[in-house]
Each structure stands twice: as structure tokens, then as C-alpha cells.
Amino acid sequence: MENKETILIRASWVSVIGNAILSLLKIGVGLFAGSLAVLGDGIDSATDVVVSLVTLFTAKIVNRPPNPKYVYGYEKADEIATKVLSFVIFFAGIQMLVSSSKSVYSAFSEQRELPSILAIYVSAFSILGKLLLSYYLFSKGKKVCSSMLVANAKNMRNDVLISTGVLLGLFFTFVLKMPILDSILGLLISIFIIKTSIEIFIESNVVLMDGMKDTSIYEKIFKAVENVPGAKNPHRVRSRQIGNLYMINLDIEADENITLKEAHDIAHSVEKSIRDSIENIYDIVVHVEPAGCLHTKEKFGINPEMIEGNHK
Q1: Contacts 24+ apart (CB under 8 A), 225-232
Q2: Residues whose CB falls within 8 Å of the CB of residue 56, separated by 6 or more in sequence, listed in order
Q3: Tens-binned pLDDT, residue by residue, of the chain (312 aa)
Q4: Helical axes 4-33 vs 118-143, angle rounded to 10°
Q5: pTM of this prediction?
């Protein structure tokens, strides 16, 4: 099977080349045809080239082995790159917002010519190209659990909506003979780009702050502990992501009269049960305590009561 680095690098190169072709085509046609919407769509595709270059650079980092400074390895570089991508997309949206606003304002004071019909054809071609790129990146991102590739795929999906909007806008521009619609459409596209960047930024915060996007993993952990004879009262359960892998820590209770070896065997069985229930495990740390011991108020972790309380 291909490793994660190989898939990330190949997907990034496909994205770089595909977006570069579409970007040059749309910017060139946008300038030639006099369509601000198509030009803005081309600028958005140019930012996708930058985004893909960032993923390509990150792919070289994530599989570096652990060292004394980074004992958990470099998997979280994926999330840091996702954060960088959100900033790139945001500033591209702001730039387009400013230029579109100026164009809308000037449209009321000066007469604009209708864009060339060529703009419609390049927008239709862009929709097809972005659909293929989005599907490819999303499938590869899910395969290796890369938030970076999935974020890029969502960006491509948004580009499909943008190009579709451009196509519809151009159609009505020609039908109604109103060039200002092209400028207004460019303004709406810029707002959509900014919104997407903010969503990607917020989503990447979860993993960087050692949170869990899918909290149902805790229910799986508790059920896995229940299946182990001798393991009782799982509590102070903590899980965080290192790249696409889960790092799990938990405390359990066992009979205080058993031997150290028996306690170790129970902990080992709990670890195996969790690994059988959850994929992509980085490591599991199980701490065994004597049953019935008094616990001080715990600041960190999840217990079954907290999960049940969320379902009520």
C-alpha cells in the first residue's frame, strides 16, 4: 500500500498543475473578455496553486520520525498547514472584495461594455475541472485522514459553486444587457471566499487545541472497557489527535487484591479492546487503580456520566 507521504505529494502535484492551468486560462480570458467575475475566479484559482504548494511542502514534513524535541513526531504539521491555508484564502477574498467594491462603485458613474461571450465557455470548462479536482482530493484526503487535503478539497468544491455562479451571472448579464451584474457577482464571490476561510480556520482549531472533532470516540472507549472482565469504572479519559492518529489516556479500577501481573493483564486487555474498536491509534496509556478508591475532583478527562448527560 502507498504510504501517506506518497499520496499527499501526488495529490498536491495534481492540484498544483490543475489549478495552474485553470488559473492562467481564467485570468487570461477574464482580462481579454473584460469580465471581472471570471478574473476574480481566476485569482481564486491562483490562490489554490499557493495552497497546493503549501500541502506539497507539508507532505515532506509529516512523516519525519520522532526525535527528542518532537517526541510525538510531525503529524500535526498537517493542521498547521491547514491554518496557513485559511489565511491565504482569507486574504485572497479580501483583495477581491476591495477590487469588486471599486468596480461596483465605478459602474454607477461610467458606462461598461458587455464581457465577451468567451467568458461563458471558460467558466463552463472551469466547473468541470474543479469538480474533478475536488473529488480527487477529497477521496485521497479521506483515505489518509488528512485534514489538509480535505480542506483543500472543500476549497475546490467552493470553487465549483463560484464558477457556477459566474456562469449564471454571465448568462443574465448577456440576457439583461447589464454589465454591472458581473461586478456585483464578483463582490458576492469575494464574500463567499472569506466565509470559507473563516470556517476552515475555526475547524483547524479543534485539533491544535487537543480537542476532538468526533466526540463519539469516547462512547467507543467506554464500551471497549465494559467488554474486559475485571476492568471497572473507566474515568479521566482523554483523547487527542496527532495527525490522523488518536492518542488515548484513561484510568480504570480493578480488584485491589489481585497481583501486579493480573492488573497488567487487565490493562493490556483494555488496550487491545480499544484498538479493536477504534482505528488509527497512535498509543494508549491505561492507569489501573484499586476499586472503590476516593478520587479528588479531576480537572481533565471524560467519564461515562458526562457522556450520558450530553444525551439527555
Answers
A1: 225/250, 225/252, 225/270, 225/273, 225/274, 227/273, 228/266, 228/269, 228/270, 228/273, 229/266, 229/269, 230/254, 230/255, 230/258, 230/262, 230/266, 230/269, 231/266, 231/269, 231/270, 232/291
A2: 8, 9, 12, 13, 16
A3: 457 778 878 888 888 888 888 888 888 887 777 776 677 777 777 777 877 787 777 777 877 888 888 888 887 887 888 888 788 778 877 877 877 777 677 656 555 556 667 777 888 888 888 888 888 888 888 887 777 778 778 778 877 877 777 777 777 777 777 767 767 777 787 787 788 788 888 888 887 888 887 788 899 999 999 999 999 989 889 998 887 788 999 999 999 899 999 999 999 999 999 999 988 888 999 999 988 776 666 677 887 777 765 554
A4: 170
A5: 0.65
Contacts 24+ apart (CB under 8 A), 300-306: 300/236, 300/238, 301/235, 301/236, 301/237, 301/238, 301/249, 301/250, 301/251, 302/218, 302/236, 302/237, 302/238, 303/234, 303/235, 303/236, 303/237, 304/222, 304/234, 304/235
